[in-house]
Specification:
Family (chain B): Belongs to the cytochrome P450 family.
Distance between the termini of chain B: 44 Å
Oligomer: heterodimer
Radius of gyration of chain A: 11 Å
Largest sheet of chain B: 5 strands, mixed
Strand content of chain A: 15-25%
Keywords (chain B): Heme, Iron, Metal-binding, Monooxygenase, Oxidoreductase
CATH topology of the domain at 22-29 and 83-290 and 341-403 in chain B: Cytochrome p450
Largest interface: A-B, 17 and 23 residues
Radius of gyration of chain B: 21 Å
Protein name (chain B): Cytochrome P450
Number of domains of chain A: 1
Number of strands of chain A: 4
Number of strands of chain B: 12
GO molecular function, one term (chain B): oxidoreductase activity, acting on paired donors, with incorporation or reduction of molecular oxygen
Number of helices of chain A: 2
Order of helices and strands of chain B: HHHEEHEHHEHHHHHHHHEEEEHHEEEE
Structural class of chain A: alpha+beta
Cofactor (chain B): heme
Strand order of the largest sheet of chain A: 1-4
Helix content of chain A: 10-25%
Chain lengths: 69, 407
């Protein structure tokens, strides 16, 4: 059984590049200004783990954490 | 008689490390080896030109400065021969704003530029690309800068603002005078800004009687944090900014991308066979050929990557050089069309992240998709010359291509 992942966007670091939303639309939402936050409580559904890591490694502001639970 | 369309010359650079000049023809033509040389010398270099200016050469130094609004002000964002007084007339909030003024000014501009808003604009951009291609597809050779890349962003932003797309040539002329000629000749810049302001004032006045569903009316209807409408000067400044920032930047990015694909058949063939890779390729092309170099003014003394920086100097904030730093990007000097980890800074870092980044990305993707669909075979015309713009925004201004399969 693979470990469960959660994503989290640090709202103080996010500047709205929206890379996470482009690369992992299931895991992130944008607000009216285009700034990102995690969808729901950030739990990564099985099968989307790669997208979580991809979003993290493409955030120019290093605002995304992937937490292994 | 001197050519009024060419900026005055600076003495040629012989010592890049101590006397760099981003308007030198060598930098304009091929800046990449210069940046490598400077990066090897120091994370921050200095020139006495432009009344004193630093250049951070590493990704880390660029990030430090972009995130440090205490020591580095955005009140001046173009490195030029002169430092004219700062007035409300030449301010263009939020790009020329520092905290705490910056955030509310930026938040006003963000909602019309979200990815969802760009999806609504996408069909128009696709149509613009195809209208342009229709016009030259039957020809054997074309200047893709003059006939294609140049027109896409200006028509898209005109469409968003609600001003006639047919006024595009006017806007392109203002931008050239402000961003290129203005570096060395203040009067040319002021004249262009004045013409631009008069043009937009007329559009604002017209909308006071007859509101429209466009970005100009959106700004006129916007309210500041106290619930008051923006002053006309603020609306004007924002419009100037959108036009200046939205045109030759993306024009350059699309042009550099096509230039790369014209001379790299393997990448071109791969994107035609695997069009879903285009968004990833766009990010890599943005990294490798970032068009925009910004600037800051040092307001209090500090150190950056161990180097002291002193007030009174400008900083040339080279996102393009940062994006070529091999410490940050493996194979930084190569275009890796499917690069999966790419924290490039083409749209800036920190609070001044480009408001139009979602627009630029959409325009680049659509422009490449439509071009590759209709013109899968093209290459640089050996009889022509590719020329690059000078200064703050770098991209091909002449892009002679031969169309069709090579004989």
């Amino acid at each position: 059984m693979a470990e469960r992942l959660k994503v989290h966007v640090d709202p103080d670091k996010c500047q709205g590049h929206a890379r996470c939303k482009a690369l992992a639309p299931e895991l992130f939402e944008l607000d009216e200004y285009g700034n990102a936050h995690e969808a729901g409580d950030g739990t990564v559904p099985p099968g989307l783990e790669d997208k979580a890591w991809l979003a993290k490694s493409n955030c120019p502001e290093i605002a995304i954490d992937v937490i292994e639970e | 008689m001197s050519d009024a369309n060419q900026p005055a010359a600076h003495p040629p650079v012989t010592d890049w490390v101590h006397d760099f000049d981003h308007t030198d023809p060598q930098w304009t033509e091929d800046p990449f080896p210069i940046w490598d040389e400077l990066r090897a010398a120091s994370p921050v270099v200095h020139t006495k030109r432009f009344l004193g200016c630093y250049l951070p050469t590493t990704y880390e130094a660029v990030r430090e400065i972009a995130n440090d609004t205490e020591h580095f002000s955005s009140r001046r964002i173009i490195v030029r021969d002169v430092r004219p007084e700062i007035t409300s007339k030449n301010a263009a909030p939020p790009i020329t704003s520092d905290p705490p003024v910056h955030k509310p000014a930026k938040q006003l501009l963000l909602p019309p530029f979200t990815p969802d808003a760009m999806k609504k604009l996408e069909p128009r951009v696709r149509a613009i690309c195809n209208e342009l291609i229709d016009d030259f597809i039957a020809e054997k050779s074309v200047d893709a800068a003059a006939r294609y890349t140049k027109h896409i962003p200006v028509r898209a932003i005109a469409h968003m603002l609600g001003i006639p797309e047919s006024d595009s040539d006017l806007f392109i002329d203002w931008i050239h005078r402000i961003l290129e000629l203005g570096i060395k000749d203040e009067s040319k810049l002021l004249q262009a800004v004045q013409e631009m302001s008069a043009y937009f004032s007329d559009h604002i006045e017209a909308r006071k009687n007859k509101p429209t569903d466009d970005l100009i009316s959106y700004l006129m209807n916007a309210r500041d944090k106290n619930g008051n409408p923006l002053e006309d000067t603020h609306v004007l400044g924002s419009l100037r900014l959108l036009l200046i920032a939205g045109i030759d930047t993306t024009w350059s990015a699309i042009g550099s991308s096509l230039w790369h694909l014209a001379k790299t058949p393997a990448d071109r063939e791969r994107l035609i066979a695997e069009p879903w890779l285009i968004p990833t390729a766009v990010e890599e092309l943005l990294r490798a050929y970032s068009p925009v170099t910004m600037a800051r003014e040092v307001v209090t003394e500090t150190t950056i990557s161990g180097c002291p920086v002193k007030p009174g100097n400008m900083v040339l904030l080279s996102f393009p050089a940062a994006n070529r730093d091999p410490k940050m990007f493996p194979d930084a000097d190569k275009v890796v069309i499917d690069r999966s980890e790419n924290r490039h800074a083409a749209f800036g870092l920190g609070i001044h992240r480009c408001v139009g980044s979602n627009l630029a990305r959409m325009e680049m993707q659509v422009a490449l998709e439509e071009w590759l669909k209709r013109i899968p075979d093209f290459r640089l015309d050996p009889a022509g010359t590719v020329t690059w713009s000078q200064g703050t925004v770098r991209g091909p201004r002449q892009l002679p291509f031969l169309l069709g399969k090579a004989m």
